[in-house]
Amino acid sequence: MIQPSDLRTLPLFRDIKDAQLTELIGTFAKETLPAGKTLFQVGEVPTRLVLLFKGEISLLEGEEERFRLRPLAPVGELGAITSHPRNVTAVTATEVELYSVPVAQLLSFFESHGPLGLSFYQNLLGLVSDKIRRDDMRIEQMRWNIIRTQKAMKKLRDLVLQSVETEISKPIFEALDDLIEHNRRAHYRVVPHPKFPAKVRLDNGALHDVAEVSDGFLKVAPGAEMPKDGGEWSAVLILPAGEMAVSGVIQRTGKDGVVVRMDGFIDEYRKMLEDYMTRLQLLDFVV
Predict the structure, then answer these.
(1) What secondary structure letter does DSSP report for 190?
(2) Looking at the chain, which terminus has fewer C-beta neighbours within 10 angstroms, N or C?
């Protein structure tokens, strides 16, 4: 049987009193599962908070094991509390003993146990804050790697220009130039936020969500009637600050949407789009 001292080893339950944890444990149901049992798959929306008490669980990306959980461990606690779709598939690697509670029941319990709920959410916020800091460190490392790579490619491109021309000079120069342009910061796409959306109004009047946008590309969410790849396209891009005419060429059509390489903008529209993208990026940035 899981004990308050067990729960307190998890950051999620740190600094919560024994009496409170004992009440909380009473909401959990115990379950034993055999090896090879799938707990959830990629894309599933979680409905329960699950704790691994005995055994091991494999977290899979495709067929590859990304992580292996061992006791005592929460199984995707952030996704469970926020109902975020699962990013991995979880399969029991051995026989396991789990303790779980429906998220709706857990939230109802916190409503009637205010001090405990406050401590839980403070710990949860601390976990999120720590994750953001770690992600920021990894992103910063990646950013500096890109900067170093950009500088090296520019030096190599200049070297090709300054050297005696051969039959491979042109393809090497063009490949380097294309990579340098592609890696420019301004070309990175951002994803509109549900509370800060972007839409396109097509020539037939239909409205469709924008899935991604950059200064040169736009991805329209699946379901829109669009020209075939290589065809010309025009629409009205609807942003929170206003509307702007856009046009371009269909670059790729897929199950995830239609990617458009956009034409250039007048200064007014370019500024509006840059402001929108900056605001989206600030949603992911801790000042």
Answers:
(1) B
(2) C
